[in-house]
Structure formats: structure tokens, C-alpha cells
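Reopening this one. Same input as before:
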Amino acid sequence: MENECCCGKKTKERSPEEYQKLIHRLNRIEGQIGGLKRMVEKNAYCTDILIQSSAATAALNAFNKELLANHIRTCVADGIRGGDNEVIDELVGIVQRLMK
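Same output, byte for byte:
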């Protein structure tokens, strides 16, 4: 399945493999967030919650890295090959946001 550039349409058709990988990561993150909520509801000790929160943050960062890498390999590369230099500005903007 060929990926369509997400930059022009602001949508992205993902391969089944990419889709499943991203959804799997999000499901794990969702579970971690639910665990955090339950910990707060059960008055868990602060450092235990912070450790779980740190794990959830790391999982979300890993999701962002994977999605960004896929974006660069497909949308950005396709845009550059097609002469769309605005895709570079978009990439710079998203990297700056992610690095805050």
C-alpha cells in the first residue's frame, strides 16, 4: 500500500503494520494513564505515582519518536521530492514543539 503525503490533505493513509504498531503503543499508554488514575484514587504514595507517570511519559515520547520517523520517511520525503519546501518548515515547527 502506497502512503499518501499527509502534508497536502492533512490526512495520512498508513499501512496496516504501521497502524497496528501505533495503536498498540497508544493502548499501552492508555493503560498506563488508567493505572495512574487508579493509583491516585487509591491514595498511592507520591513517589510510586511519579515513577508510573515517568513511565507513561517515556512511552508517549517513544510513540512521538516513531510517528515522527514515519512522517519524515513518508510525508516529508515525498514533499521534498515533489518540490514542496513548506513541508520542511512544518517539520521544523513540529520538532521545535516536541523539544519544549
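So the earlier flakiness isn't reproducible anymore. For the record, DSSP finds four helices and no strands in the chain.
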